[in-house]
Amino acid sequence: MKQDLVSIITPAYKAAATIGQTIASVQAQTHGHWEMLVADDCSPDDTRAVVAEWAARDARVRLIPMAKNGGPAAARNGALAQAQGRWIAFLDSDDLWLPPKLEHSIAHAQANGAALVFTGFRRISFDGTRTGEYIGVPRTLTYRQLLGNTAIATSTVLLDRAQCGEVRMKPVFYDDFACWLEILKRGFVAHGLDEDLMRYRVMPASVSRNKKRSAQEVWKAYRQVEHLGPIASAWHFTGYALRALRKYRQF
Known about the structure:
This protein is α/β, with parallel strands linked by helices. It has one domain: Spore Coat Polysaccharide Biosynthesis Protein SpsA, Chain A. It is about 40% helix and about 25% strand. The chain has nine helices and nine strands. It has helices spanning about 20-25, 45-55, 70-80, 100-110, 145, 160-165, 175-185, 210-225, 230-250; strands at about 1-10, 35-40, 60-65, 85-90, 95, 115-125, 140, 160, 190-200. Strands 1, 2, 3, 4, 5, 6, 7, 8 and 9 form a nine-stranded mixed β-sheet that branches. α1 (about 20-25) links the parallel β1 and β2. α8 (about 210-225) runs antiparallel to α9. It is globular, with a radius of gyration of 17 Å. The mean pLDDT is about 95.
């Protein structure tokens, strides 16, 4: 591992319209020692060509062409397999970072000895013309607390591999949620940095906006991934659903 390097993990599928803005937000970071690994999941549009153009102009951007379409978990794993940095950051292909995101996240991780850091953010509309209210985060989350919480947005996460070791995503629907739970289950505590550092783009057909599907997949994560009993699952799901309702009531 390269100690000061941040490896940015970006799965991309049909992202030709947004990936350029996402890459530009990384290039604008005040922490400049990074590599951005964009794993194109066999997009039917021009995603691969767009990323290749950015990579030709900036050697820190690397295109990872997946051999077959496997979904976000497989694409993230394809990028993770080539990551060289001590720090692992996640940024989805339609989201954006504010310039101090990496610098402040690393400083927060170092100040708290944290294996996992997450930050606050705001939603933006697909065309970027509308910005939502600030969504803050708690100071810390344990494994038990995260089971009933929606506070960790994937594109805000920074991991310290010197502490948590190698990271791989499970082939499940909410691979990111399962990954954070797996790390915290080892005894680590997630540290929240309550700063506005990310923009979450709301896509017109986003799966996360399908509440019925989301609820079903969270329940499956409790029962099939975490192997919780029905009573414990119902308890944590209630907390998760209430927090999700408050989170999504306003833009």
